[in-house]
Structures are given as structure tokens and as C-alpha cells.
Design a protein that fits this description.
The complex is a heterodimer of chains A (571) and B (266).
Chain A: H1 3-20, H2 24-56, H3 62-95, H4 97-103, H5 109-142, H6 148-181, H7 184-206, H8 216-226, H9 228-231, H10 236-248, H11 252-267, H12 269-306, H13 322-336, H14 338-359, H15 369-395, H16 397-400, H17 406-411, H18 416-445, H19 450-477, H20 486-490, H21 493-520, H22 524-530, H23 536-568
Helix pairs in contact in A: 1-5, 2-3, 2-5, 2-21, 3-4, 3-5, 3-6, 3-10, 5-6, 5-12, 6-10, 6-11, 6-12, 7-14, 10-11, 13-18, 14-15, 14-18, 15-18, 15-19, 15-21, 18-19, 18-23, 19-21, 19-23, 21-23
Chain B: H1 4-32, H2 35-44, E1 49-58, E2 61-75, E3 78-93, E4 96-109, E5 114-123, E6 129-136, E7 139-146, E8 152-157, E9 162-163, E10 181-188, E11 193-209, E12 212-223, E13 226-232, E14 238-243, E15 250-254, H3 257-261
Parallel strand pairs in B: 9-10
Antiparallel strand pairs in B: 1-2, 1-15, 2-3, 3-4, 4-5, 5-6, 6-7, 7-8, 10-11, 11-12, 12-13, 13-14, 14-15
The chains are: A mainly alpha (571), B alpha+beta (266).
Chain lengths: 571, 266
């Protein structure tokens, strides 16, 4: 049996054993996840159908603009999936601990590369597959596409993601000799520079500053028309979008041609990867490992030289307590991980783009009191959901990332529950900072009245506590110490459970905060018939109190859940 | 088994080479098409069926509608382009204002040369007219039948042909560029004549439609002495068409089929 087949068999047996060992509570969790995922798909279907229908209904240009939207979707996806795969592939193929383990066995580097490439591609594109399928299904439904469309679109999307994944992996392999020579500072500066230039070019080409209520579609139309690469017949995104549009129109010949173009160009990566795996992978992996060890030694010696000894440390610095020491350790580990750092930069960019886009919100949207309140709570929801994504991706894996070194912090002279509190303080610091900046900027852009402004700030503070408690509590209750890839930890069973619980808690806080405004918007007879006709401020204070009580209860529950699980855990 | 890898690699290279060569040939073929045919190809692109519907107004009063369907069919003989016209409009004809109804189907080959034609026109004051045509050798034979005259036979050269309604042709074109000029042979179902329509892309302008701003090309079309101005989007959707004398004041506004057909014939 070939080594690659052995590894695949090992994975399958492991999966089978995990399935057989599923207990009742794990089964419940699985169904909760399934329900959550189902909700995401249903919401995705509904939102995309409504959006497509809204555009399609504009006479004369709606259908053409929708076609351009599909082309734009694949254009953006190509770059995002490639970028994501470059990061995931580099860490999985060269840095991951499991790769070290596999290299210690008599397995050909080519087989290891094949396995790791497949994993990197799967991890960087599975979410795109789940989120894009509802979009394509709703587009086909709107266009009354034939039944074959649904099969065609699934196949085309899979081929497209395989192409993007294979391209991203190949770029990561080509860039590896450059990346390993860069110091952390150089890597950060280069990534920030590239991201900054790309972001500026993107925002400039989109002409985001010109968007207002009346010409936003015109700007969008011009933007999609001006992207010549997007319409080029030699561009992979165009192959995918042409195939989807042709499938919706029932043009099977065109679907076959464009899908074959995608397949042919995807398959071309196989000989390249096989050649690289045989000739260069082993050598390059060794170079990356030895370089990182050399760099590590350099950093350590530099640090030793720079750090004052205990005896020579100035008196004013005092002794670091466990909290400060652990916080500093977490921060250091975070910035040293290129995957964490690069993805947090992307995340930060997303928040900046969101805040900037609100500066140009159509003024018609804020015309009436009802619309103003609707936009206010929509903005609050968006900020909280961004925070939720942040805590799920970066805070939940924090405890699991202690990994095999957990025994060090486990043996530290602090209670285990203190570790959860420490992670919570670290997470709260980051989420409050990010949340405050975004909510203040967005509310200033929306010119929110003081009561709504302060209410939003209060809600984000509470949401920050809820989301941090959930991430740290569930992170401690469902740790994955064997895994060193934070992306994988975040999308595991516990991570997905945390994601849905976070979304639910955000929904509860927003519902509680919005309740007085919903009451105020109801007709007077409803008040008289069913609800007391109380002054609005009483309801607002009551809702603030209820949101606070919910946050407090959730925090205590999560902390206890995490602490109990962690206390029981052996190393 | 020993050479399986080499064979697989060869197959992948062959497949890749074939597909990319096909793509290059396809693009070259598009470039080698005549100006008009290239615009027709851009209009159809991935879609097999495209429609255009207009509400017709004279001095802001709705006087009818017209609709065109352009369908690409993969028939046994090769690719066929089927153009359908359905029109109902009240116009001044033979000194009287009367309803004219036109229904027609033109089947053309991939080169836009006609294969067959069937067109029925109904006027309030005259018996119905029926026009049929079919390709014979290097010519296109037309037969016109009316209720009060013996059948008339016409022979047209086998050239690209487009259908029009009572006001002129509606060309299935997209991907235009400012400054382009081209001529297209069109058939006038009222005058029962074939004539050249001269199309000139004058400028790119921003037009307002349904309360939204849209970029469109302003096109001047001259057909049988009637000049019309049209605003056509990049994808070939016609937003508005304004007719010159003798149809001054007549505007064709792009609409949905349901809205366009909603008229009161009285």
C-alpha cells in the first residue's frame, strides 16, 4: 500500500472511530450545528433572491446588471480564495506540526504535498462553497432556469474553487523561498503595503466617494464595465460566470465549453505540483524549518541581549503579575503567527471599509424616523456580527493554541479558571477597542441622535462581553490541543457551536434593545389593547436592564462551563 | 502502471492544449466577423433568448406596443437565429388613423442571412396581408398575399436581413463603441420593401430610466428616410427610441412585456 493511501486510510478510520464514539450530547450539538447551518443557507437564499429580484425588476438594464453581479462575484471570489489559500497553504505545507510528523516517516515528500495541498484547498474554500451555492440557486430560481442548471452550477462552482485553490497553493510554493527570508517586520510591512495599495486601487476604481442614493447603480455598473479583466475571455472568473449564465439560459454547449476550460486549467496544476513535490518540496521544507529555527535562535539571543536581567531590571517596572505575564505571552504568540496576523489585518481592513461605506449612505434612507431607527439597528447588528466573526475566529482558538505546551500554563501557580478570565480580559480589550471605534465612527456617519448613539455604544459594550465570554468559555469547554491551525480550530464542532451561539446572543441583545422602538412604532390601539401605554424612556431603561441581566447570566454560565471543563482536564 | 503518470500528464497537457487552442480560435473567429455580426454575437453572448419590449407613445399618449424576441437555436442544419416581432400600434396610414397589428418570424442562419420568413399584418381598413419567404439558391424569394390583389413575388439577394415593425428596425446589437457606423439590410413590413438601415453610434450619455441613472450609447438610425435616435446600453438593451419626421413625437420606451401589452385599443 502506498504511503499516501495509508495516510488517507488512517484519516478515514479516524473519522469512522470519531463517528462511532459520538455520544448523545455530541449528537445534539451536531444537530444544533446542522440547524444553524441550515439557517445560514436559508437566510443566504432569501437575501440573495430578494437582491437579485430587486435589480432584475429595473426595466431595460436590471437583467444585464444581475449578469454583471455574477461576473463580479466570481472576480472577487477568485482573488479572495487565492489569497486565503496562499496563507493557509503556506502554514499547512511548511509550518504545521503534523507536516513535521509526516516527514519523520518513510513517506515521499510528493505524497505529503498532495495531502497537505488537498487539506489547504478544502479549508480555504469550504465556507465559500456553502455561502455561494445559495446565491447561485436563488439566481437560477429567479431566472426560471432548467433543472440541469442546479447541477451545472454546483459543478462549475466546485471546479472554480479547485482552480482558485490550486492556483493559491502554487503561488504559496513559488513565494516560499521569498517568504522564509523575510523577517517578521519585513513581512508585515510588505503585506500592509500590498494590502494598502490593493485596497486603495479597489476603492478608487469603485469610486466609492461618488455613491449616493440616485446614482449608486450607475457607479456599480461603471465599475463592473471598467474591470476589463473581469470580461476577458481568458480570465478564469469569466469562464465560471459565463458557464453560470449559460446554464441559467439553458445553453448547455456553452456550459460544457466554459466548464471544460476551468477543468483543463485546473488539471494543469497537477503535473506542476507533482514535479515540485518530487524535486523541490523536501528541500524547501527543510530550508523553511532550518531558517525558522535559525531566526528563532537569532530572536532568542537578541531578546536575551536586549532584556534586562532580573537583577538589573529597573525598580519601577516591578514584578509582573500572572495576568500581565500571560497577556504579554498571548500577544507575542499572536504577532509571531503569520496566519493570525495576516488574517487579523484583513479583518481590520474589512471594518475600515464598512465604516467608510457608511459615510456615503444614501440620505433618502434616513428620511423618516422609522427608517432612521431601522438603519440604526441594522448598523448595530452589522457591527456586532463583525465582532462575532472576530471573536469566533481569533478568541475561540486562543486556549486550544496553547497546544501541547498547555502543561506549562496548567502547572502555573494560578487557578485554571484564572486562565479563562485572563483570555477573557485579553479578548475584551481587543473586541471593545474594535467595537467602540466602529460603532462610534458608523454612528457619527449616520448622524445618530444622542439617545440612539449612547444606546448603540452600550449595546456594543454588552455584546463585547457576551461574545468574549462565549468564545473563551466554549473555547475552554471544547479545546483542541492537538490542532495547531487556528482556522481549523475555529471551524471545528466547538467553533461552529460558538459561532451560532454568538449570532444568537447578538440577536437577543439587539431584540431587547430594539423592543421599546418596536413598541413605539405600533398603532395606539395596540398599546391600549395589549400593552401598557407607558412612557418610552421607562421601556428603554427596562430594555437596557434586561440586556445587562442577559449579559451577566451568559457570562457567568460560560465562565462556569469553561472552568469546570478545564479543571477536569489532564495534560 | 509504470507509465501511468507519464500518460496522465500527457493527457492533461493534451486536454489543456486543446481547450486553450479552441478558446483562441473562438476569439479569433469573433474578431474576424463583420462589424454588424460581431455586435450581434455580443448581444446574444451566453443567452439563448433575449427580448425587447416597448410601450409606444405619441405626445405622451400610449398608442401601442412592440416586442422583439431574438432566439438562438441549435438546429440540425446548424445555428439558427429566430427573430420574432409582435406589434400593435395606432398610426396614420392612407389618410386615416388605424390600428396596425404585425406578427412575424424571421429565421436566419449563423451569418444572419435569411432562411425563412413569415409575417402577417392586419390593418383596420384593409384586408390582412401575409408575407412568406424562403431561401432558394443564392436568393431569398418572397411571396406577398393580400385579400384583394393577386400574389406578388419578389426576389431578394441573399444578404443579412433584419425584421422591423411599423416604425423601423430594432437591431440586436451590443458592445458598441462611439464613432462606429455600419449598414444593415432590413425589411419594412408596411412598405413591403427591403432597404439599408444606416446605424451611427454618436455618443455615450447618462440617461435616467425608472428614476435611476444608466450609461447608454446614443445611436442614430436612418431607415427609408426616417431618422430615429436610440439610447442603447452596453448589453444591448434599448432604453428609449425617438422617431423623426413623419413620426415626430413618437417615443418607444423600454418596458416589461406585461406593461407594454397593457393598452386600450379604443
Amino acid at each position: 500500500m502506498s504511503p499516501l493511501r495509508s495516510i488517507v486510510r488512517m484519516r478515514l478510520v479516524s473519522l469512522k472511530n470519531t463517528t462511532l464514539n459520538v455520544k448523545a450530547d455530541a449528537l445534539t450539538k451536531f444537530f444544533v450545528l446542522l440547524f444553524g447551518l441550515g439557517n445560514v443557507i436559508v437566510i443566504g437564499l432569501w437575501v440573495s433572491y430578494e437582491s437579485f429580484e430587486f435589480i432584475e425588476n429595473f426595466p431595460a438594464f436590471g437583467a444585464a446588471l444581475n449578469a454583471k453581479m455574477i461576473a463580479l462575484l466570481f472576480f472577487a471570489l477568485l482573488f479572495l480564495v487565492i489569497l486565503s489559500t496562499i496563507i493557509v497553504a503556506y502554514t499547512t505545507i511548511f509550518i504545521a506540526r503534523e507536516t513535521d510528523f509526516l516527514f519523520q516517516h518513510p513517506i515521499a515528500p510528493r505524497d505529503i504535498l498532495a495531502l497537505k495541498t488537498f487539506e489547504a484547498m478544502a479549508f480555504s474554500s469550504w465556507a465559500t462553497l456553502f455561502l455561494c451555492l445559495p446565491v447561485l440557486i436563488s439566481f437560477g430560481y429567479l431566472r426560471q432556469a432548467p433543472a440541469t442548471y442546479y447541477v451545472d452550477s454546483a459543478v462549475v462552482l466546485m471546479l472554480f474553487l479547485l482552480f482558485a485553490g490550486a492556483a493559491g497553493t502554487s503561488i504559496a510554493l513559488i513565494l516560499a523561498p521569498v517568504l522564509r527570508r523575510l523577517t517578521l517586520r519585513q513581512a508585515l510591512t510588505t503585506s500592509a503595503l500590498i494590502l494598502g495599495v490593493l485596497g486603495w486601487v479597489f476603492l478608487r476604481s469603485f469610486n466609492i466617494w461618488e455613491i449616493d442614493g440616485t446614482n449608486s447603480f450607475l457607479v456599480l455598473d461603471r465599475f463592473t464595465s471598467q474591470l476589463t479583466a473581469m470580461h476577458s475571455p481568458f480570465f478564469p472568473g469569466q469562464w465560471a460566470s459565463s458557464a453560470i449564465l449559460a446554464a441559467a439560459a439553458g445553453n448547455r454547449g456553452e456550459v460544457l465549453f466554459q466548464a471544460s476550460m476551468l477543468l483543463a486549467n485546473t488539471l494543469m496544476f497537477i503535473p506542476f505540483l507533482a514535479w515540485y513535490g518530487t524535486r523541490y518540496y523536501g528541500r524547501e521544507w527543510l530550508a523553511v524549518r532550518s531558517h525558522s529555527r535559525g531566526a528563532r535562535r537569532g530572536i532568542d539571543s537578541e531578546a536575551r541581549a536586549a532584556a534586562p536581567s532580573l537583577e538589573t531590571r529597573p525598580a519601577w517596572t516591578g514584578r509582573r503579575g500572572p495576568l500581565v505575564s500571560l497577556l504579554l505571552k498571548d500577544m507575542l504568540v499572536f504577532v509571531r503567527d503569520p496566519a493570525q496576523l495576516s488574517q487579523s489585518l484583513l479583518f481590520f481592513l474589512l471594518m475600515v471599509i464598512y465604516s467608510l461605506s457608511l459615510l456615503r449612505i444614501p440620505k433618502d434612507l434616513l428620511g423618516t424616523e422609522k427608517l432612521r431607527i431601522l438603519v440604526h439597528f441594522a448598523n448595530l447588528g452589522a457591527v456586532c456580527m463583525i465582532l462575532s466573526a472576530f471573536t469566533s475566529r481569533f478568541l475561540f482558538p486562543l486556549l486550544s493554541l496553547e497546544g501541547r505546551a498547555f502543561w506549562i500554563v496548567g502547572l502555573a501557580p494560578v487557578r485554571r479558571s484564572f486562565l479563562i478570565q485572563q483570555k477573557g480580559i485579553f479578548g475584551l480589550g481587543v473586541s471593545w477597542t474594535l467595537g467602540m471605534i466602529t460603532i462610534v465612527v458608523s454612528n457619527a456617519a449616520l448622524a445618530a441622535p444622542p439617545a440612539l448613539f449612547l444606546g448603540a455604544v452600550y449595546s456594543v459594550l454588552l455584546a463585547g462581553v457576551c461574545l468574549t465570554s462565549l468564545s473563551t468559555g466554549l473555547g475552554a469547554a471544547y479545546p483542541t490541543f492537538e490542532e495547531d491551525n487556528p482556522s481549523r480550530i475555529a471551524v471545528g464542532l466547538g467553533g461552529t457551536l460558538n459561532f451560532f451561539a454568538s449570532a444568537l446572543s447578538v440577536a437577543v441583545i439587539i431584540a431587547l434593545e430594539a423592543f421599546p422602538y418596536i413598541l413605539a412604532s405600533r398603532p395606539a390601539q395596540v398599546f391600549q389593547a395589549g400593552l401598557p401605554d407607558s412612557p418610552r424612556w421607562t421601556w428603554i431603561w427596562l430594555s437596557h436592564t434586561a440586556a445587562f441581566a442577559f449579559t451577566l447570566a451568559l457570562t457567568v454560565f460560560c465562565h462556569r462551563l469553561g472552568a469546570r471543563s478545564l479543571e477536569r482536564r489532564d495534560f | 502502471m509504470r507509465h501511468a503518470g507519464v500518460v496522465m500528464t500527457a493527457v492533461i497537457f493534451l486536454f489543456w492544449g486543446t481547450m486553450n487552442t479552441l478558446l483562441v480560435f473562438r476569439e479569433r473567429k469573433k474578431e474576424s466577423l463583420g462589424q454588424y455580426r460581431a455586435h450581434v454575437a455580443a448581444f446574444h453572448k451566453d443567452a439563448l433568448l433575449r427580448e425587447r419590449w416597448f410601450s409606444i407613445f405619441r405626445k405622451n399618449v400610449k398608442i401601442g406596443y412592440t416586442g422583439f424576441k431574438f432566439e438562438k437555436v441549435f438546429a440540425a442544419e446548424g445555428i439558427e437565429i429566430r427573430s420574432t416581432v409582435e406589434s400593435k400600434v395606432k398610426i396614420e396610414l392612407f389618410g386615416a388613423s388605424q390600428w396596425v397589428e404585425i406578427q412575424g418570424l424571421l429565421v436566419a442562419d449563423d451569418a444572419m442571412k435569411p432562411v425563412s420568413l413569415r409575417l402577417d399584418a392586419t390593418l383596420e381598413t384593409l384586408p390582412a396581408m401575409s408575407l412568406t419567404g424562403k431561401r432558394e439558391g443564392d436568393s431569398f424569394q418572397l411571396s406577398i398575399e393580400t385579400g384583394f390583389l393577386p400574389p406578388v413575388r419578389l426576389s431578394l439577394p441573399l444578404q443579412e436581413l433584419q425584421l422591423g415593425d411599423a416604425f423601423g428596425p430594432s437591431l440586436p446589437i451590443a458592445g458598441l463603441e462611439v464613432g462606429e457606423t455600419f449598414e444593415v439590410p432590413c425589411f419594412d413590413p408596411i412598405a413591403l420593401e427591403r432597404a439599408l438601415a444606416t446605424v451611427r453610434v454618436v455618443a455615450r450619455e447618462t440617461r435616467s430610466t425608472s428614476g435611476l441613472s444608466v450609461d447608454a450609447f446614443r445611436i442614430e438610425t436612418t431607415f427609408r428616410g426616417v431618422m430615429s435616435l436610440s439610447w442603447v446600453t452596453e448589453a444591448g438593451e434599448v432604453l428609449l427610441q425617438e422617431l423623426g419626421p413623419p413620426f415626430e413625437g413618437v417615443r418607444l420606451i423600454g418596458d416589461t412585456p406585461q406593461n407594454a401589452k397593457r393598452i386600450n385599443p379604443k
